């Protein structure tokens, strides 16, 4: 199978390219290196050093026996994207080329606009390019469980069945996003579903939970990034980075918020299963991709335990919640479809956390040098009139590309 990965330089994209190549698939990729620029704008770096793109691609060729066709483009460059898809002729397209940060989108108007433009316009460009150049290809688009919000009912996989006056229908489950970023993902889902209905495209929309974990092969050029700043570092990744530099683990609020999560290795397994079992033409399907549902406080306790088992000194110190979110809520997502395809969770979370901490310990000095970026400064509701950012890293408008 020929798989085109948009966002191949990112946390998930680079690991997925290697997993697919190891399974015998032909991989091509596109990336504008925006993730590197966004993290740099936040005043941070990847905790795990990552090689420049040229070195990564050279290592990929050495280890997997074939060069990866790479297209340094932004999906919003519609003509360039069309040429890339026509040249590669994919059987499947994986869409990971979106800004994945709720805090980044909540800084101010400029960041909200940047995130929504990148995500919504980029996805729309990709849909039209697929229609024109590879209409038979399967689109695997990464969504987020955050699209659903935290409703007081069980969360089905995208749709629910209704009956009225003897007729049954299948309606999209209501979305209740909690940030400008999450709303951009809702808009993406609606556009993808419409394209399937309108043009007969086939798509899998993956509502993914919080991903944690490292990807550190023996050749460091193949390592995937791991972010820990307040905007791009997911909770577990931040907690682990805090422990390796002897900083307190800082769950937000009372820590009773419940989230779906899975390891990076399990995310790779699920995405591969979805690709190797495509939907029918015209079908828009939704997978809720997660392994466990745990509270943020429980996650902090698990990281604390893993740190102690690795010989570190660790402590938990909750901080005020900068977000606008329910801290006490029902949360029960359905996850049947991936399991029906054969998803079997890999290592237990405690084992994954210990391995993650061991991978991060050699980079403790690197993490410590940007430790000021761990603490939350972006607040969903401004503390003072005008909503102006108070942190020096947040005052600049998004612009340019500043790779690590």
Automatic annotation (TrEMBL):
**Which part of the chain is the NAD-dependent epimerase/dehydratase domain?**
3-288
**What EC number is given for this enzyme?**
3.13.1.1
Q: Which Pfam families match?
A: Epimerase
GO molecular function terms attached to this record? UDPsulfoquinovose synthase activity
Question: Which top-level group of life is the source organism from?
Answer: Bacteria
The region called Disordered is annotated at: 372-404
- Alphabetized UniProt keyword annotations: Hydrolase
The record's annotation in PANTHER family points to: DTDP-D-GLUCOSE 4,6-DEHYDRATASE-RELATED
The family assignment reads: Belongs to the NAD(P)-dependent epimerase/dehydratase family.
Recorded protein name is: UDP-sulfoquinovose synthase
Q: What organism is listed for this UniProt entry?
A: Streptomyces olivoverticillatus
């Amino acid at each position: 199978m020929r798989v085109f990965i948009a966002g191949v330089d990112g946390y998930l994209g680079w690991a997925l390219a290697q997993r697919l190549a190891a399974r015998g698939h032909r991989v091509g990729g596109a990336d504008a290196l925006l993730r590197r620029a966004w993290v740099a704008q936040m005043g941070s770096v990847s905790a795990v050093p990552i090689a420049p793109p040229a070195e990564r691609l050279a290592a990929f060729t050495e280890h997997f026996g074939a060069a990866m066709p790479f297209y340094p483009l932004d999906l919003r460059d519609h003509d360039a994207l069309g040429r890339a898809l026509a040249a590669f002729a994919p059987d499947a397209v994986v869409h990971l080329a979106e800004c994945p940060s709720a805090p980044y989108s909540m800084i101010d108007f400029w960041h909200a606009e940047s995130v929504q433009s990148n995500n919504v316009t980029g996805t729309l460009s990709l849909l039209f390019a697929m229609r024109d150049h590879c209409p038979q290809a399967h689109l695997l688009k990464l969504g987020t469980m955050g699209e659903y919000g935290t409703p007081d009912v069980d969360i089905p996989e995208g749709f629910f069945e209704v009956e009225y006056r003897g007729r049954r229908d299948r309606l999209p489950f209501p979305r209740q996003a909690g940030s400008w970023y999450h709303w951009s993902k809702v808009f993406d889902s609606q556009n993808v579903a419409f394209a399937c209905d309108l043009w007969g495209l086939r798509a899998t929309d993956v509502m993914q939970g919080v991903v944690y974990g490292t990807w550190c092969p023996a050749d460091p050029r193949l390592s995937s990034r791991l972010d820990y700043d307040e905007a791009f570092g997911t909770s577990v990744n931040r907690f682990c980075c805090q422990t390796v530099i002897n900083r307190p683990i800082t769950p937000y609020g009372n820590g009773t918020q419940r989230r779906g999560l899975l390891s990076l290795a399990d995310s790779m397994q699920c995405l591969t299963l979805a690709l190797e079992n495509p939907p029918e033409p015209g079908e828009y399907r939704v997978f809720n991709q997660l392994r466990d549902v745990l509270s943020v406080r429980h996650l902090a306790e698990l990281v604390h335990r893993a740190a102690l088992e690795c010989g570190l000194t660790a402590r938990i110190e909750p901080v005020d919640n900068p977000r606008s979110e329910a801290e006490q809520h029902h949360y029960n997502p359905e996850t049947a479809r991936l399991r029906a395809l054969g998803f079997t969770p890999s290592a237990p979370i405690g084992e994954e956390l210990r391995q993650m901490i061991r991978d991060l310990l050699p980079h403790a000095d690197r993490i410590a040098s940007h430790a000021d970026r761990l603490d939350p400064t972006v607040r969903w509701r401004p503390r003072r009139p005008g909503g102006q950012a108070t942190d020096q890293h947040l005052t600049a408008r998004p612009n340019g590309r500043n790779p690590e």
